[in-house]
Design goal:
The complex is a heterotrimer of chains A (159), B (29) and C (116).
Chain A: H1 4-14, E1 22-26, E2 32-36, E3 45-49, E4 52-55, H2 56-68, E5 76-78, E6 83-86, E7 90-91, E8 98-99, E9 105-112, E10 115-122, E11 133-134
Parallel strand pairs in A: 8-11
Antiparallel strand pairs in A: 1-2, 3-10, 4-6, 5-6, 9-10
Chain B: E1 9-10, E2 15-16, E3 27-28
Chain C: E1 4-9, E2 14-16, E3 19-21, E4 29-31, E5 38-45, E6 56-60, E7 76-80, E8 86-88, E9 91-93, E10 105-112
Antiparallel strand pairs in C: 1-4, 2-3, 5-10, 6-7, 7-8, 8-9
Classes of the chains: A alpha+beta (159), B mainly beta (29), C mainly beta (116).
Chain lengths: 159, 29, 116
């Protein structure tokens, strides 16, 4: 019987071959987004959020550099106290998944073979053609970023 | 921004960033 | 006795007695005791370094982040093995041409006003 971690390992590596589940298209929420190409059951692994693993302080320096260049910093994903995954310049299309205050997915950090990896799971049944979203859970900050998710329970800001 | 960044590199796996010696330096004479 | 602190140091450094071994990006270990006035001096042996690697050494207040190099912000003053540059607030200035390397004995002196 495969231990839980092994099971995650196999499932996460299958992800590469099941790309067909989602497609990249214009989003009503913000710019571009990812959409389900088939209906997806709850708690399904949908896609891994891939990027460069960097230390927190390096992420802070990059965030300042990106802000200066007007790039925005919403492709930085914190995996634990010490490390962040930065998909701003190197990564996969999971970086296009938009935030929603009433999301149909959630992000989970798995530790597989000592490596921490971020996987986006479905929370509810996702119908074909629905936009994939998860709650970014950004830390609360002073200068706000408006949230455009349009959900009834929208909190108004991303941070 | 990242959708149209010409130099964007697709990755299949997470990539560990190797820090430079001057990673934390702002200026260096 | 002044030692390398066992807890005022970055978790990823390996401390063995009074020797510090680091790898990957810069991070910091501080001494077990600090000073707050007068003139103080310490010396260390630079034992060993892989090719194309560098260290920085100097004086740091406890506010400076352990996950960066000494001299990264206003709370510390560093001296770099590469080119012998001195750093404060992440700004490098010429200081000691040629730098230093394994086998050298490094001395750091600090002179703090006594009555302030």
């Amino acid at each position: 019987s495969l231990g839980d971690a092994n099971n995650d390992f196999f499932k996460i590596n299958q992800l590469k071959f099941r790309k067909k589940m989602i497609k990249f298209a214009r989003s009503r929420i913000h710019g571009w987004g990812l959409y389900a190409m088939e209906s997806i059951a709850p708690d399904e692994m949908i896609v891994e959020y891939i990027g460069q693993t960097i230390r927190s302080l390096v992420a802070e320096e990059r965030e300042k550099a990106y802000e200066r260049r007007g790039i925005g910093s919403s492709y930085l994903f914190r995996i634990d106290l010490h490390h962040v995954i930065d998909a701003t310049k190197r990564g996969n299309f999971a970086r296009f998944i938009n935030h929603s205050c009433q999301p149909n997915c959630y992000a989970k950090v798995l530790t597989i073979e000592g490596e921490k990896r971020i996987v986006i799971y479905s929370r509810t049944i996702i119908k074909k053609g629905e936009e994939i979203t998860y709650d970014y859970k950004f830390p609360i900050e002073d200068d706000k970023i408006d949230c455009l998710c349009g959900a009834k329970t929208c909190r108004g800001y991303l941070n | 921004w990242s959708a149209f960044a010409p130099e964007f590199q697709e990755l299949e796996e997470n990539e560990k960033y190797i820090e430079k010696e001057n990673e934390f330096d702002m200026e260096d004479e | 006795t002044v030692n390398v602190s066992s807890n005022d140091r970055a978790f990823q450094l390996s401390i063995n007695g009074n020797s510090i071994t680091g790898f990957e990006g810069y991070s910091m270990a501080r001494a077990s005791h600090g000073v707050s006035k007068g003139t103080w001096y310490f010396e260390v042996n630079f034992d060993d370094q892989p090719d194309d690697s560098h260290i920085r050494i100097g004086w740091s207040q406890s506010y400076a982040s352990l996950q960066a190099c000494v001299g990264y912000n206003k709370f510390s003053y560093g001296w770099r093995s590469k080119h012998g540059t001195k750093f404060h607030e992440a700004k490098g200035k010429k200081y000691h041409f040629g730098g230093f390397k394994q086998g050298d004995v490094l001395g750091c002196l600090i002179h703090l006003p006594v009555d302030k």
